[in-house]
Amino acid sequence: MILDAALAQASESGFESLTIGTLAARTGLSKSGLFAHFGSREELQIAAIDRAANLFAETVFAPALQARRGLPRVRAIFEHWLQWTDDSGLAYGCPLHAAAIEFDDKPGPIREHLVAHFDRLQRNLERALTLAIEEGQLPVGTDAAQLAFEALGIVFAYYHSTRLLRRADAATRARTAFDRLLSAAGTAA
User: Fold this and answer.
1) Please, what sign has the CA dihedral across residues 146, 138, 187, 170?
2) Residues with Cβ < 8 Å from 76, sequence gap 6 or more?
3) pLDDT tens digits for 42-66?
4) What was the pLDDT predicted at 143?
5) Residue 83 CA to chain centroid, in angstroms?
6) Which of 6, 86, 111, 149 has the most CB atoms less than 10 A away?
7) Helix residue ranges per DSSP H, 14-163
8) What is the model's pLDDT at position 36?
9) CA–CA dist 160, 147 (Å, integer)
């Protein structure tokens, strides 16, 4: 319950807004009780990032594993990713994306946790694309790392378009871009 409240706070106002005091006010718990759980603001922020990363994995990758290996699974990952904040009840967008922007130039444990999450995310996406190559759904020699990089770019453009610009067609445009990416990869020698 505490971490879900921390994640809701971070989604709404960023991880920099997350303190023992703001979380105490949000949950109705005492500061000393929360301090006993986390010890410091940084530990609280890291725990909230870990909660977000676990929720992301549960919402995006776990259901996608039900899809057939290869491109069906890659497409399932992409679809769940577009829906993940809605499906997980995070009304203010992706807290991990927001945290990446907040901490990208701030060295330390929080940034290290974010880097580990995004590295794991990219490796998992690359692995799904590699399976599509092994299944013969993408040509041998396809650069799975490059495709994963470009897919991440599409998702980040989607976040920008849907959250900042409030474009109603953001999901349609993201799906079109993703389809073009996979189509171009499939026809490339």
Assistant:
1) negative
2) 63, 64, 66, 67
3) 998 999 999 999 999 999 999 999 9
4) 96
5) 11
6) 6
7) 20-27, 31-38, 41-56, 62-64, 71-87, 95-103, 109-134, 144-159
8) 84
9) 20
Whole-number pLDDT of residue 187: 73
Is CATH 1.10.357.10 correct for 48-187?
A: yes
Encoded tokens for 115: 């880097």
Give me 162's structure tokens.
Answer: 């849907």
Separation CA 25–CA 11 (nearest Å): 16
Residue 59 to residue 62: CA distance in whole angstroms: 6
Quick one: pLDDT band at residue 175, thresholds 50, 70, 90?
Answer: very high
Encode 20-59 in three state secondary structure.
HHHHHHHHCCCHHHHHHHHCCHHHHHHHHHHHHHHHHHHH
Neighbours of 89 (CB within 10 A): 12
Buried b (16+ CB within 10 A) or exposed e, 8-47: bbbbbebbeebbbebbbeebebeeeebeeebeebeebbbb
And the tokens for 146?
């490059």
64/83 Cα distance (integer angstroms): 12
Is the pLDDT at 188 greater than 60? The verdict is no
**pLDDT tens, residue by residue, 28-42:** 888 888 888 888 889
Q: Are 48 and 133 in contact (CB under 8 A)?
A: no
Confidence (pTM): 0.90
